[in-house]
Amino acid sequence: MPQLRLALNQIDSTVGDLGQNADAIVHWTRHAAEQGAHLVAFPEMVLTGYPVEDLALRPSFVEASRQALRALAARLADEGYGELPVIVGYLDRSETAQPKYGQPAGAPQNAAAVLHRGEVVLTFAKHHLPNYGVFDEFRYFVPGDTMPVIRVHGVDVALAICEDLWQDGGRVPATRSAGAGLLVSVNASPYEQDKDDTRLELVRKRAQEAGCTTAYLAMIGGQDELVFDGDSIVVDASGEVVARAPQFAEGCVVLDLDLPAAGAAPSGVVDDGLRIHHVVLSDDPVPAYEAELAGGYAERLDDDEEVYSALVVGLRAYVAKNGFRSVLIGLSGGIDSALVAAIACDALGAQNVYGISMPSKYSSDHSRGDAAELARRTGLNFRTVPIEPMFDAYMGSLGLTGLAEENLQSRLRGTMLMAVSNQEGHIVLAPGNKSELAVGYSTLYGDSVGAYGPIKDVYKTAIFRLAEWRNRAAEERGQTPPIPENSITKPPSAELRPDQVDTDSLPDYPVLDGILALYVDRDKGADEIVSAGYGEEVVGKVLRLVDGAEYKRRQYPPGTKISAKGFGKDRRLPITNRWRESA
Ligand SMILES: Nc1ncnc2c1ncn2[C@@H]1O[C@H](COP(=O)(O)OP(=O)(O)OC[C@H]2O[C@@H]([n+]3cccc(C(=O)O)c3)[C@H](O)[C@@H]2O)[C@@H](O)[C@H]1O
Ligand SMILES: Nc1ncnc2c1ncn2[C@@H]1O[C@H](COP(=O)(O)OP(=O)(O)OP(=O)(O)O)[C@@H](O)[C@H]1O
Ligand SMILES: NC(=O)CC[C@H](N)C(=O)O
Predict the structure, then answer these.
(1) Which pairing describes strands 327-330 and 353-357: parallel, antiparallel, or unpaired?
(2) 15 burial level (CB within 10 Å; 0-12, 13-18, 19+)
(3) Which ligand is nearest to the CA of 504?
(4) Where, in this chain's numbering, is deamido-NAD(+) bound (predicted)?
(5) Is the bond leading into 484 cis (omega within 30 degrees of zero)?
(6) How many CB atoms lie within 10 A of CB 140?
(7) What is the DSSP string of 192-232?
(8) Are 400 and 361 a contacting pair, CB within 8 Å?
(9) What is the ipTM of this complex?
């Protein structure tokens, strides 16, 4: 059996930065060459970044991607890596299919290419286009209709792109029909809780269907609301795991695979009308090499650590990729802003995190003290600016009462945060959680101001769990737990009027989150939620609040998605909407 040394580069790329992405590909190809690799792969659309959204509709960007691909092929050869075949995802256009929006050139395609000896020797487009959740690929792309197979050192390697593995039919059975000895799938699969288990089962199943070792190469990093968690997987033809890369870590998995020698060159049309496109790069057996490398098996993170890591990676990517270094947070002494501050310190370093306590006449002593204690524990930059003089000035002019008076306090804090952001250049983090966003429990242009919402997809009940996990993790490492115990144990309160607590307006969080999980995440109707054991009255109230807060959510900043249904592209509801659920 020939052996093939495969290098899977689980790396980050930045949407639109063709130059920097090409540099990263060269860097990691050099690394793979130094490791003696015979075949090198990079993730889906690594050259352009993923997802490019409506940039795909701009012919200038499509051309730039095609041009960057050709330049990359030449550069790899110039730098001495021409003999090494490199699989690179990029944005292409079809020479034949008409664009959907009348652009002058052919329709855009989510494509990948094999670069060898300075040339683009093979290109192919994704066959199955995802069009659900956060994906809109039918909006942009036309599907590919070939089955790419490259012969590398006497092994036939079939190629696929992400969704090609998620749907039945297409390139997986075609890999078997083509008699390939290895299937390499390049991916950009956004993080969701528990998706690692789903992916593992998927890859095992598809390897058995394809009848060959299957390498699933994942992307790492973050793009706007999405986090890419890595977790590349290689399984053999029987579905046994051969290697698994770490989650949330950039790097290269290099492994030696025993693979069957290729037979006669595959040709013809196979499953789903896919025409085999077979390119022989090298029929020579693999040159002798010495060191035995193993891909290894990185242990999975536990559930809370995994979510927390996703929140850290998502925030870090957003801040860095948008050209910022520092963030600003209003610190109330409560658990939400404390958790956001802990995440920010882990993502950016405490020296880049700025917190302001902005007490009003309703702020309790403990809320001021807890905010200061958080700053002491984490080392973030801290100051206190009371809002009372500004509040008094507004009240003197307007004579506000009730909710208007309450919301004014929140808005003064929002204005203050934006003013300091303008003055000092930090971006403002919005500390709203998924429970609050669901029911509209925040003040528009008040505590909802900001550039990014790190915990907007985390329910309040999970906020407590994550805070406790982060403190426990610190203790286990012999460090100071970042979040003051009091911020975790005191009853949540907006402190906008005397003795206010969240439960004055909302059901207890376990009940609220239970209902939201059914209504928001699973689109259950009122009857089904009541049948699940929740009271008719509370269900009616929560559903009314959720429906009535759509306008507020639309104006909320973007933030890291961790669930299968975040408040972003996953859940698109009309703002103007008279449909109401009744139990
Ligand atoms: N469909 C629609 N499309 C566009 N705008 C719409 C609208 N419906 C109302 N509006 C407008 O929205 C505004 C009302 O919204 P808004 O000003 O936010 O005020 P509102 O939602 O009435 O009140 C804020 C609520 O959030 C609570 N809160 C505030 C701050 C922090 C926290 C916390 O614990 O985290 C909780 C507070 O106790 C109160 O219950 C009005 O200007 C109204 O005209
Ligand atoms: N006294 C304050 N000083 C600074 N920021 C504040 C203050 N009060 C509220 N904020 C900001 O407004 C956000 C909403 O806070 P609020 O206390 O109303 O409710 P919360 O959702 O329970 O949040 P938290 O758990 O952080 O207190 C806070 O996370 C914080 O960023
Ligand atoms: N880029 C893709 O095709 C991703 C789609 C796939 N179902 C996933 O979530 O992993």
Answers:
(1) parallel
(2) middle
(3) 1
(4) 407, 436, 552
(5) no
(6) 23
(7) -TTHHHHHHHHHHHHHHHHTSEEEEEPPEEEETTEEEEB--
(8) no
(9) 0.90
Of how many residues is the chain composed? 583
Note the pLDDT tens digit of each residue in 309-351.
999 999 999 999 999 999 999 999 999 999 999 999 999 999 9
The binding site consists of 132, 189, 195, 330-337, 407, 436, 552
With residue 171 as reference, give the H or E element that holds it. Answer: helix 171-177
Find the farthest-apart pair of alpha carbons in the chain and give their distance in angstroms, rounded: 88
Q: Which of 179-193, 359-373, 474-488 has the lowest mean pLDDT?
A: 359-373
What is the number of other CB atoms lying within 10 angstroms of the CB of residue 573?
12
Q: Is the bond into 51 cis (omega within 30 degrees of 0)?
A: yes
Q: CA gyration radius for the chain?
A: 26
CA angle at 378 for the pair 374 and 382, rounded to the nearest 5°:
65
510, two tokens: 């376990």
Q: Give the tokens for residue 266.
A: 């595959």
Q: 228 forms bridges with which residues in the sheet?
A: 190, 221
Containing H/E element for 511?
helix 509-519
Question: Tens digits of per-residue pLDDT, 426-483?
Answer: 999 999 999 999 999 999 999 999 999 999 999 999 999 999 999 999 999 999 999 9
* DSSP state letter for 15: T
Is-contact 208 237, C-beta < 8 A?
Answer: yes
Output the residue whose Cα is nearest ligand 1's atom 10: 551
Token digits for 499?
């003795």
Reported pTM: 0.95
Q: How far apart are the C-alpha atoms of 436 and 442, rounded to whole Å?
A: 7
CA 372 to chain centre: 32
Average pLDDT, the chain: 95
For ligand 2, which residues put their CB under 6 angstroms from it? 330-332, 334-337, 356-359, 363, 367, 413, 431, 436, 447, 492, 494-495
